[in-house]
Write a structure and sequence with these properties.
Layout: H1 6-14, E1 20-23, E2 35-38, E3 47-50, E4 55-59, H2 72-82, H3 92-102, E5 119-120, E6 166-171, H4 187-192, E7 197-200, H5 202-208, E8 215-219, E9 224-231, E10 239-243, E11 271-277
Parallel strand pairs: 1-2, 6-10, 7-9
Antiparallel strand pairs: 3-4, 4-5, 6-11, 7-10, 8-9, 8-11
């Protein structure tokens, strides 16, 4: 669901000879798996999380793993041992100790140091306090200087035309996270946003003869999805916005897999579509 031209991804998964997946819930990807290894959620295991400010934080199991699920490090260890490469880890702290020996920016990270407060990498030695601000006097490049890259505007690979007259942009809404694997299992959230809303500008809606709540079909050169309309000025005239959280109306069935030549990011935010009342 999160990959561009998701129908292509689905065909690729269906063509595999064998697929194993490790996850906490059944989802649109592991429905194609021959084997699903039941992993534990973050509330059921010890370990660390590293957040966006580079802070490595301890987490502790609040409950035992549900059913026959296991923490992912145990699953990987058991697979490795069965395949002939011995792993003797007894606890996630053993894995962190190994990381510290092979990853210089984690060299000073040990569970004893992060029991009560996390440390921010780079933290190269056990007596290093961590690095709250990454760039102060210099940038983390060999010459210590920042790098500016001038760019010139380039047209998107696909623009609206007579057949597909609307811009499509995809994104998130407040209530759901990414592909909704977890948030769409929350009853309170689903009462607020149970289904996809295709956002269209009032002037475009009037021209198409549609109103809020009508069902429309949105089609690109790659696929087609249907959902209820929400008329809103949040969408500019000529533009349609669709959140990508809903498997039954997967917005990324419509997007392009063309990559930006520098950033290598797919074209999620610009595609050409047509809108038809169902």
């Amino acid at each position: 669901m999160s990959d561009p031209d998701a129908l292509h991804v689905e065909k690729a998964l269906q063509s595999l000879e064998f697929m194993a997946s490790m996850d906490i819930f059944l989802n649109e990807t592991n429905r194609h798996a021959d084997v699903i290894l039941a992993a534990s959620s973050g509330f059921e295991k010890d370990g660390t999380f590293t957040n966006t400010e580079r802070r490595i934080q301890r987490v502790r199991a609040a409950m035992k793993p549900v059913g026959n699920s296991k923490p992912d490090w145990i699953i990987l260890k058991e697979i490795s041992n069965r395949l002939g490469y011995r792993m003797e880890y007894k606890h996630p702290s053993d894995i962190m100790n190994e990381i510290a020996t092979v990853t210089p920016i984690y060299g000073g990270i040990a569970y004893g140091r992060i029991e009560h407060e996390g440390l921010q990498w780079p933290c190269p030695t056990l007596d290093h306090p961590g690095t709250p601000i990454l760039h102060t006097e210099n940038f983390a490049r060999l010459n210590g200087r920042g790098k500016f890259i001038p760019v010139e505007f380039v047209e998107p690979p696909e623009l609206p035309d007579e057949e597909y007259p609307f811009y499509l942009s995809t994104g998130r809404i407040l209530y759901h996270y990414h592909t909704g694997t977890m948030t769409r299992r929350v009853k309170g959230i689903n009462r607020l946003k149970p289904e996809v809303e295709i956002e269209i500008n009032p002037l475009d809606a009037e021209k198409l003869g549609i109103s809020t709540g009508d069902v429309v079909r949105v089609t690109s050169r790659r696929g087609s999805i249907s959902g209820k309309v929400r008329i809103t000025k949040r969408s500019m005239r000529g533009m349609v916005f669709i959140p990508f959280h809903y498997a039954e109306a997967a917005a990324n069935d419509l997007t392009l897999a063309v990559l930006d030549p520098i950033a290598k990011i797919p074209t999620y935010k610009v595609a050409a579509v047509k809108v038809e009342r169902v």
